[in-house]
Design a protein that fits this description.
By secondary structure, the protein is of the alpha+beta class. It has one helix spanning about 55-65; strands spanning about 10, 20, 45-50. This is Rubredoxin.
């Protein structure tokens, strides 16, 4: 059974820009992939951070409560 990837954040080590990606499917689209350069300062120094199981559990619970899953 297909399983979507866990949400993850990408942070720029130069300017602090940060964006969280939460793919909704195991089929990744271009917008689900992180940039290779920071969109603000164009630095290639980006760090990926995985979201914890707790964050994922909370997200799934909220989706069920709100009727989205």
């Amino acid at each position: 059974m297909p399983v979507p990837p866990r949400p993850y954040s990408v942070r720029c080590l130069e300017c602090g820009w940060k964006k969280t990606y939460a793919p909704t499917s195991d089929v990744l689209r271009p917008e689900d992939l992180p940039p290779t350069l920071c969109p603000l300062c164009r630095s290639p120094k980006l760090q990926s951070e995985s979201k914890s199981d707790l964050v994922d559990s909370i997200r799934q619970t909220l989706k069920r409560i709100l009727g989205d899953g």
